[in-house]
């Protein structure tokens, strides 16, 4: 496993792999790896000859009141987990290396962002799209792997690849969960013990919504109300949103049909948790 920190080094490594006509699986992350990331790496490893992992806490994804400075980081542990996952190459640049100071050019996202997290995190997906545009050009992967825990991000990335004609495949990977159903997340470490015991109610609420759909319920508001009610009764958190939308278009329909997503964001004392379920009806 090789570790590089500069664009020049990365280009050198990628050019060698391309010369050998090898498939490249790419997993972009902000580090502090957990089982969710490891599942992405395992699938990339199974499907490609070379696996590239990026570790970069992207400042453009954080708003002025968000947790960039306190975002958890542990590069040494990440390196060890990557080695065990048989990663071939880690790209771990600094912000200065990625943006050469203040960014002169950024990508603006106009579609699929005015709902869910994008509604309140203005500019967040611009930051995601900007860094991924850079990384896709540098790594030139055959396939890139993203966790469905952040299903809105997956939808936006699909759009980015289609709009800019990147010659790569986006591979969505199912959410990894704790035994009690809580979605794995680097931010779970910020939960108090009481909040941690309540947090599985998010997924249980989503399952209630899914069951309503499978039983034939097609009225969006009925599903939203049932999911919201369960979560409010079983947690001390504040609901940011409960949404039912088409997927991946993320369009609001009062009467649902086709593939859809039920998504939740819940704010606890120091952390905001998101989770979702997709259903094809």
Automatic annotation (TrEMBL):
Catalytic activity: (R)-pantoate + beta-alanine + ATP = (R)-pantothenate + AMP + diphosphate + H(+)
Signal peptide: none
Pathway the protein takes part in: Cofactor biosynthesis; (R)-pantothenate biosynthesis; (R)-pantothenate from (R)-pantoate and beta-alanine: step 1/1
Top class in the EC scheme: ligase
Residues the entry annotates as binding beta-alanine: 61
Subcellular location(s) per record: Cytoplasm
Keyword ATP-binding listed: yes
Annotated residues for binding of (R)-pantoate: 61, 153
GO molecular function, one term: pantoate-beta-alanine ligase activity
UniProt-listed CDD domains: PanC (cd00560)
Entry binding sites for ATP: 30-37, 147-150, 176, 184-187
Keyword Cytoplasm: yes
UniProt KW keywords: ATP-binding, Cytoplasm, Ligase, Nucleotide-binding, Pantothenate biosynthesis
SUPFAM superfamilies: Nucleotidylyl transferase
Physiological role: Catalyzes the condensation of pantoate with beta-alanine in an ATP-dependent reaction via a pantoyl-adenylate intermediate.
PANTHER family: CYTIDYLATE KINASE/PANTOATE-BETA-ALANINE LIGASE, PANTOATE--BETA-ALANINE LIGASE
The family this protein is said to belong to: Belongs to the pantothenate synthetase family.
Subunit structure, interactors included: Homodimer.
Miscellaneous section: The reaction proceeds by a bi uni uni bi ping pong mechanism.
Protein name: Pantothenate synthetase
């Amino acid at each position: 496993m090789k570790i590089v920190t500069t664009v020049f080094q990365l280009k050198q490594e990628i050019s060698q792999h391309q010369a050998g006509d090898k498939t490249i699986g790419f997993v972009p992350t902000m580090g502090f790896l957990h089982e969710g990331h490891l599942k992405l790496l395992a699938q990339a490893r199974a499907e490609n000859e070379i696996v590239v992992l990026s570790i970069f806490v992207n400042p453009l994804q954080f708003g002025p009141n968000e947790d960039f400075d306190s975002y958890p980081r542990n590069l040494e542990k990440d390196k060890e987990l990557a080695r065990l996952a048989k990663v071939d190459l880690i790209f771990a640049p600094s912000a200065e290396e990625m943006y050469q100071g203040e960014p002169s050019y950024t990508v603006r996202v106009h579609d699929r962002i005015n709902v869910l997290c994008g509604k309140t995190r203005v500019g967040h997906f611009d930051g995601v799209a900007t860094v991924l545009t850079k990384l896709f050009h540098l790594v030139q992967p055959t396939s890139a792997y993203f966790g469905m825990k952040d299903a809105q991000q997956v939808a936006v990335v699909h759009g980015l690849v289609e709009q800019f004609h990147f010659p790569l495949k986006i591979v969505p990977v199912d959410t990894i969960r704790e035994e009690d159903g809580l979605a794995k997340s680097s931010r779970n470490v910020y939960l108090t013990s009481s909040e941690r015991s309540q947090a599985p109610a998010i997924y249980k609420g989503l399952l209630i919504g899914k069951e309503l759909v499978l039983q034939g319920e097609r009225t969006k508001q009925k599903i939203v109300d049932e999911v919201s009610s369960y979560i409010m009764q079983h947690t001390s958190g504040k609901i940011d949103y409960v949404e039912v939308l088409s997927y991946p278009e993320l369009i609001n329909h009062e009467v649902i049909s086709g593939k859809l997503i039920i998504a939740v964001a819940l704010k606890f004392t120091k952390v905001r948790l998101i989770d979702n379920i997709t259903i094809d009806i």
